[in-house]
Amino acid sequence: MPVFVLIPLLPLLASLILVLGGRRWGEHSHRIGIPAIGLSFGLSVGAFLEVLRNGPFSISLYRLFQSGSLAIDVNLYVDQLTVLILLLVTGLSGIVHVYSSRYMIGDPRYNRFFAVIALFTFSMVLLVMSGNLLMLLVSWEVMGICSYLLISHSAQRPSACRAATKAFLVNAVADVGLSFGIIMTFFTFGTLDIQTILGQAESMKDHTINIMGWMGLDMHIYPVTLIPFFLFLGAMGKSAQMPFHVWLPFAMEAPTPVSALIHAATMVNAGPFLLVRLSPLIVLSPFAMTFIAIVGATTAVFAGIVSLTQSDIKKILAYSTISQIGFMIMTCGLGAFAVAVFHLLAHGCYKAFFFLSTGNALRSVEPGHGHEASLHPPPKGMGILYGGALFLACLPPFILFSGSYEYLWGVTGFTSATIGFRIIGLMTVFVTSIYLFRSVTSIFVHGPKTYWPASGHSPLEPHSIRPQFLNGSILSSLLLAIILLGVMLTLFWSWFANFLAPALTYPGMSVHEGIVDSGSKIWLLVSIGVAIAGWAFAYSRARSGTQMVGAVNRSTRLYVLFWNKLYFDEIYDAYLVNPTIRFSHWLWRNIDIRVIDKVIHSIAIYSVVFAQWLWRVVDVNGIDRIVVGFGQQSVGMSQWLWRVVDVKGIDRIVVGLGQQSVGMSHWLWRVIDIKWLEQRIGQVGKQADTAGKLLQAAEPRTIQHQLLVMIVWLVLATVLLYILV
Q1: Torsion sign over Cα 407, 411, 415, 417
Q2: Is 403 left (phi over 0), alpha (psi -120 to 50) or beta?
């Protein structure tokens, strides 16, 4: 188990190594990031197998803070939901790292780029594995900082800097709601541990707090009802839901790998994950659930329509992401959390493919190499294709209304999920039947085409190609492959729902509680009828030669309205940004300059005047006089001490001692030094005479021996004299 700590730790270590290494890594930085993310993905697979065999597990690291009953532990929690998101995040991040190793060649900030995307991956992985709300909030904010750094990667472009600032500010505003929700959650439950909160959520359903008690008033609220609203505000910002969606289209200023990472693996997926992770708490607030469903549905419809009116491929993909995330949020509001997770995984995979492959696709349709299909009624003799399109249009009803897909919507047992499934399912069947009709007729028939020259001037004469039909065996094989795919998806949906169900089972709620089995056959028949109606609508439009795509006239007000994204950016600029800037200027002129600056200047002037008064009154007339008087007294005291103590006392004593010492010295010289020393010298002289006489009596010696003896005796006499004296 402890080895799974490396799942978030490896990207963090890779980021730190790249940051501390500086530019020395250069264009070899990917050699640090790619292996780290690859190993993290391998460990995520191991965690998936561990959960599949033994169920959820937690990893306690250390106690971060403890005060009284409050204890905040740094711990990781891994369950069925966690491992599925981990596989998506680490897998797609690894692909993005590999893609970036070639895409970013020549970029002067190559090392910085890989350091930040590794930290970006770490923050999302830690958010998914967080065991308490504090770790979740920290990783949530780190992700916002990383998004700012990545969007502004090309800082030399003002548009990139503005886009990064916009993304950071919008998310910062939304994160205030998330922070307040976490504070209220702690105030209500007394803990930040997610599993403890979810376990106590049902028992705290009727708990109230008096928010006006500090004023002596009574105003009781149900915190369990309000907490989901504040938590969802944070999710709205990260997942770009209306009205906080305006930052995501501008985030396309980032390099393409960053866009793929934000849209597919991180950032926007944080909102749906937060709702699913805290779903036992979310479902206790029906008003919050309704609000979430309305916001998600509104965002999905709005962004879907806007994406149809855009011409910039990146903005099309951005609004497509907003629409898909809105659909996930809506399903969370309906209680179909399993559908939200399934859609999140599927959307992450195909949206990453879209971003990483769009560049090559655009190169293949450069000016001069494209063509436009002319709009002519289809030729006769296409009955087999129309019949095949009708057969394909009838497959989605069987997959949706008679297979295991419906089980995904009923895992948490909400009647609203069942109703939402049927409404959305019928809409999907109708739209799918129309697009299947168009796809079949466009794939198997090459209608008349008009080729445009590279110069872009007047078109050449259209070159018509006779309809070409594929033989029946190929069409039959295609139909058989689609049927097999439907059966495989049915089995996969059933396994997916069963695997995820333990993570979405709440106290007091049983699986399939909200699914109404009665009337399923009727709904199947209704969906088949809707599919036939969609096919009939497409057929009538095809027979009449009416264009089914781009039917909205560019001159209509409706098209202009959605082409300008309902003027959200202009409204924000007109009613939020510009008024805020003007208010800031007003504050600067009237508060900062006329009030604060004047107060500060007045304080400075009065401080100088007061300092001058202190100098004259206190310093000169007070302190200086005291110091001068004290100095004069000190000088007088010193003179008195010199006359009385030094001259009359110490000097007299010293002089008397000196005179006594001189007299003593004279007496010692006369008595001891002269008399005693002369006696000692006389004795030595006598001894020397005696020795001389003895030497004369001795046998003759050479002059050298005599001198040596004299020297020896002289030395001995000197030593003896020194010793005696």
Answers
A1: negative
A2: beta
Tokens of 715: 């030395």
Per the DSSP assignment, residues forming a β-bridge with 65 are: 72
Listing DSSP states for 155-222 in one string gives TTSHHHHHHHHHHHHHHHHHHHHHHHHHHHHHHHHS--BHHHHHHHTGGGTT--EETTGGGT---EE-
**pLDDT tens, position by position, 161-220:** 998 999 999 999 999 999 999 999 988 888 888 888 888 888 887 777 776 666 767 777
pLDDT tens, residue by residue, 593-616: 888 888 899 899 999 998 888 888
| Burial class (CB within 10 angstroms; exposed 0-12, middle 13-18, buried 19+) of 568 | middle
Q: Which residues contact 411 (CB under 8 A, 6 or more apart)?
A: 336, 337, 338, 497, 500, 501, 504, 511
Query: How many Å from the N-terminal Cα to the C-terminal Cα in the chain?
Result: 98
Would you kindly state where each structural domain of the chain is located, as residue ranges? 380-449+467-550, 567-724
Q: Name residues whose C-beta falls within 8 Å of residue 121's C-beta, 6 or more positions apart in sequence.
A: 11, 37, 40, 89, 90, 93, 261, 265, 266
Sequence-distant (6+) residues with CB within 8 A of 99 are 257, 260, 356
Count of CB atoms situated within 10 Å of the CB of 105: 10
Q: What is the pTM of this model?
A: 0.72
